[in-house]
Amino acid sequence: MYIVINGGGKIGEYLATKMLGSGHQVAVIEQSKKKIERLALTLPQQALMILGDGCDSVFQADAGAAEADIFVATTGADDVNLVSCEIAQLVFGIKRTIARVNNPKNERIFRRMGIEAVSSTTVISRLIEMEALEGAVHAVLSLTKGELVITEVTIPHAATGGDAQAGRRVADIALPDDSLLVAVVKGENLAIVKGSTVLNPGDVVMVASKQGFEDVVRDALLALW
Fold it and tell me: Which pLDDT does position 39 carry in this prediction?
């Protein structure tokens, strides 16, 4: 696949490295000369780097957006990510756009524009990788069209400071109806959740739930620690 990434910060660099390592073609648009110079040293030579504004169709064209399968916006500004994804859709006809959302309140705006809004680097990279797997991409699309969302919850440290509440098995955790623990990030490792999986303080849990129930699910999880 050919992937265009708007934003050459830490998230953009991580995604570019991971996607290149998986055999995909990648172009990165970044308007900071210093970041471009750093990317030139850290990314493999096959990466295409464009110095410019990702919200400008000229620079998207230079990045090969017309041939791109996926456009990803990873900057720290939600408005920039929204506009650049809209241009990718309207000007270049890219069917799949994914954006980093820094303010959860903006997620509905992105979805209304047909942009997949996520807040985790790991989730973004997994969404892209699943595109190449037969059948997997359909599961992701039906998840979005069915108005289900992925909520990211960081397990807090136990208030008592003791060991009694340090870890909890997923099988022993009661969540609200229409919600499901799907994955957990422990350090740099992403794992699919099973009943025997133990959640510990500091773990980042991905929860699938109906749109609008994100806060209910988050509160239910946090109340356990």
Answer: 94
Q: Which two tokens stand for residue 47?
A: 């990466």
d(CA 41, CA 61): 24
Q: Own/partner pairs for 101-104, CB < 8 Å, 24+ apart?
A: 102/76, 102/77, 102/78, 103/78, 104/214
pLDDT score recorded for residue 135: 42
| Whole-number pLDDT of residue 14 | 86
Rounded Cα distance, 124 and 115, in Å:
12
Residue at which a domain ends, from 145, 161, 185: 145
Q: Which 8-state DSSP code applies to residue 102?
A: S
* The pLDDT of residue 154: 82
pLDDT at 220: 81
Contact 200, 167 (CB under 8 A): yes
What is the per-residue pLDDT for 160?
A: 45
Residue 159 vs residues 156, 202, 207: alpha-carbon distances, Å: 8, 13, 23
Q: Do 134 and 189 fall within a single domain?
A: no
The total number of structural domains that make up the chain: 2
CATH of residue 160's domain is: 3.30.70.1450
pLDDT at 159 over 60: no
Token pair, residue 40, equals 């030139």
**Domain housing 80:** 2-145
Cα–Cα distances in angstroms (integers) from residue 182 to residues 105, 185, 221, in the given order = 23, 11, 14
DSSP assignment of 12-50, as one string?
A: HHHHHHHHHHTT-EEEEEES-HHHHHHHHHHS-TT-EEE
